[in-house]
Design goal:
heterodimer; A: about 550 residues; alpha+beta; 7-stranded antiparallel β-sheet; about 50% helix; B: about 80% helix; about 0% strand
């Protein structure tokens, strides 16, 4: 037994063997029923030997067994050998982007986890483009281990918290928890989705019939659910403990869990059956938070509050420090106070105002030499002398100061600037303020909250949402045509982009190119979209 | 008959000696390997520091003494040898770097310079890796020490001259400093 930092438990691969035999049994009974039915329907053999039953035909019995073993083998091989990739593809996960600040940090943290475990096993990491908060670890029979983490979680955790979460997942992989769960999921879990489809089909055509395929899938699904029996809740406690042992920071792990417990954790999976691979159960249920014989038996995750309690007792702390930290975190966001109002002299030498700092940021004629006056101060001075306006201007310069991109703005025909926004690279027009973004970057921009949403954008977003909602409703009632405004042409391929809503839940209009996978946001549209999702703004009608 | 029993006992003892010796060699090599891992990370830190200093220098002209402290600590660490001396010098360097990071917080302009942020992230990651590989190394050393000191093994270890490995000890000042995360004790 090689010596490693964490005491790896005894290999539990025998359970994978059990899965195989369950499959063999299942195929055997299916084949058995099939052949038996055949014997009843065509009594040719009966005339010869005087028996209806299969066990009077040793040859047939051997054939059935052989076919069952082979079928189960094929099934097992196909679903278990490349399972990591299958699961990750179904979640739409992608490798971390080396140009992206946050993703670079993720990569570094994974490297650190390798160091702390003594480089026992290579672990890949991938990013799931979802706003929900969850992390998942998978490993297949080829030994390919991957930790997937959602953009949402990645953008919200601090570095120590991220380390704790990844260490937790790495323990699952090193202790072979994952390989069992992944194999189980790929063997049985994926059938839940198929089963639902078959049920839908049956309802429409001729009522609910008991099709043999239906029966097979139903059994597989039930078996998959029964696999929870194998998976002890204890292992989550163990993984938490191992994570603390690696990072020596129980508070960070507790904070991460506390954070997970108060937010949306569904990873948006198609079928069920993947929940046992996640850090916190995506489906919140009452059973999950209870403890009893049955609950312990059937659920995959222990109560999250109990996990937090254990972690906090390691740090000799209580729950109040988490609440305090949470309050402090929200406090910093609101700290950008808006009580100062500004009056400015516009290019026509007229005093304009009052403006809030948020509104100032969007004034196109504001320059360092503009005369300004605050609402309660009497002195008039240049804009550059006011520290707040100075910062605003500096930020504007920083934004402009980027490398030129090879693409041109579809509206102004000027080269776009490559800038860093929310720690990732986007192309922005210096003149009209529109931005061109690759589709796969949108979720991570939306998930991150570095840029503070100003009052101006908030009210604008509210107005736009209301307007768009009204438009949609009218179109539904009247069935009028799509308003065909002048299209924007994709800067890359030159084809017209289609104007659409980001989604029906977030009615912000954007322009998409169906060929290049690029999206054009007019000025403020990106900020509005972020603001709408972050603050859960709804249209008021 | 008795001769066979004697031979049997002799073979048993011999195989026990071989087994213990081999396992001790295994643990010793693990410890050496872990030390090499720390070395790799320390080297990476030494490589990163000149870049960091040269990038930051332009922005922090008034903080020359802090930058010089980092540079001299690096030079000291480069020239040291042996686990204990190395650990002491490297802890000096860690402290000098922490001082630099703290001062950098006072220069918000640095936050918008991408190369500085990248280097800072790299250095932070390397710092963590050093801490983690030290932790891993010390765990292995503890393991080796236990193996050498427990009863029957200490005979073999004494016989073949297995020395105790040294801990990569945490710096003295670390224990005096308050913990980074202050927690309320109930």
């Amino acid at each position: 037994m090689p010596l490693t930092f964490i005491e790896i438990e005894k290999q539990k691969t025998w359970r994978i063997g059990v899965f195989y035999f369950i499959l063999v049994g299942l195929y055997f009974f299916t084949m058995f029923a099939f052949v038996q039915g055949f014997l009843f329907i065509f009594p040719y053999n009966y005339l010869k030997t005087g028996s209806f039953f299969i066990w009077h035909y040793p040859g047939a019995l051997v054939t059935v067994t052989a076919i069952a073993v082979v079928l189960a083998g094929v099934h097992f091989w196909f679903s278990a050998s490349g399972a990591s990739d299958t699961v990750m593809t179904s979640l739409g996960a992608a490798n971390p982007d080396p140009e992206d600040g946050v993703h670079r940090q993720l990569r570094n943290v994974v490297d650190e986890i390798h160091v702390v475990t003594g480089r026992t096993k290579k672990i890949d990491c991938m990013v799931i483009p979802s706003l929900s908060l969850n992390a998942i670890a998978v490993e297949d029979l080829n030994g390919h281990a991957v930790i997937g983490i959602t953009e949402g979680l990645l953008s919200r955790l601090t570095r120590p918290q991220l380390e704790a979460v990844l260490a937790h997942e790495a323990y699952h992989i090193l202790s072979n928890d994952c390989i069992q769960a992944t194999v189980a999921t790929s063997l049985f879990g994926m059938y839940a989705a198929m089963l639902e489809k078959i049920q839908d089909f049956g309802d429409e055509e001729r009522g609910r019939g008991l099709h043999p395929v239906f029966f097979l899938f139903w059994t597989l699904t039930k078996l998959g659910q029964m696999l929870n029996l194998f998976i002890s809740r204890e292992r989550e406690y163990r993984a938490d403990a191992a994570s603390v042992r690696m990072t020596r920071d129980p508070v960070a792990m507790a904070e991460a869990l506390y954070f997970l417990s108060r937010n949306w954790r569904s990873t948006g999976l198609v079928g069920s059956g993947l929940e046992m691979l996640c850090i916190a159960n995506p489906e919140e249920s009452e059973q999950e938070e209870d403890e009893g014989f049955w609950q312990n038996l059937m659920s995959t995750h222990p109560p999250i509050m109990k996990r937090i309690d254990i972690l906090l007792s390691m740090a000799h702390a209580d729950i109040s420090i988490l609440n305090k930290d949470a309050a402090a975190a929200t406090g910093t966001i609101k700290a950008g106070n808006q009580d100062d109002r500004y009056y400015l002299m516009d290019p026509h030498s007229r005093w304009q105002g009052p403006y809030s700092p948020g509104e100032l940021a969007s004034l196109s004629w504001l320059s360092p030499v503009t005369w300004t006056r605050t609402s309660h101060g009497r002195t008039v001075r240049r804009a550059s002398e006011d520290s707040l306006i100075h910062d605003l201007l500096a930020e504007r310069v920083n934004k402009m100061d980027g490398k030129s991109s090879s693409l041109a703005c579809p509206l102004c025909r000027q080269p776009l600037a490559r800038i860093t926004y929310e720690k990732t690279h986007i192309d922005q027009c210096r003149f009209c303020g529109g931005s061109l973004i690759e589709n796969d970057k949108i979720p991570r921009i939306v998930a991150r909250r570095e840029e503070v949403c100003t009052e101006r954008v908030k009210s604008l977003a509210r107005a736009v949402l209301t307007d768009n909602q009204r438009k949609i409703s009218l179109r539904k009632i009247k069935g009028g045509p799509h308003d065909a405004s002048h299209p924007v042409y994709c800067p890359k391929c030159g084809h017209p982009m289609f104007r659409t809503f980001y989604s029906l839940a977030y009615l912000i209009e954007i322009d998409r190119c169906g060929i290049c996978g690029l999206t054009w946001f007019d000025q403020d549209e990106l900020e509005m979209l972020q603001c709408v999702i972050e603050n859960k703004i709804a249209a008021d009608l | 008959m008795t001769i066979w029993i004697a031979v049997g006992i002799f073979v048993l003892i011999l195989s026990w000696i071989i087994f213990t010796y081999n396992s001790l060699v295994f643990y010793k090599n693990e410890v050496q390997n872990a030390w090499k891992q720390i070395d790799v990370q320390l080297k990476r830190r030494h490589d990163l520091i000149p870049n960091m200093v040269s990038v930051v220098k332009g922005y922090m002209a008034y903080e020359r003494d802090i930058l010089e402290r980092v540079i001299s600590a690096r030079a000291m660490a480069l020239s040291s040898s042996g686990v204990r001396a190395r650990a002491a010098c490297e802890s000096q360097l860690t402290q000098a770097l922490q001082g630099l990071f703290a001062v950098m917080e006072n220069y918000p302009v640095l936050k918008s310079v991408e190369s500085v942020m990248e280097l800072q992230e790299e250095l932070k990651s390397t710092e963590n890796k050093i801490a983690f590989s030290r932790q891993f190394y010390n765990d292995l050393v503890a393991n080796l020490r236990t193996k050498i000191e427990v009863f029957p093994n200490n005979i073999i270890a004494g016989l073949f001259g297995f020395g105790k490995a040294e801990y990569y000890s945490a710096e003295e000042d670390d224990r005096l400093r308050p913990p980074a995360q202050t927690v309320n004790r109930p």
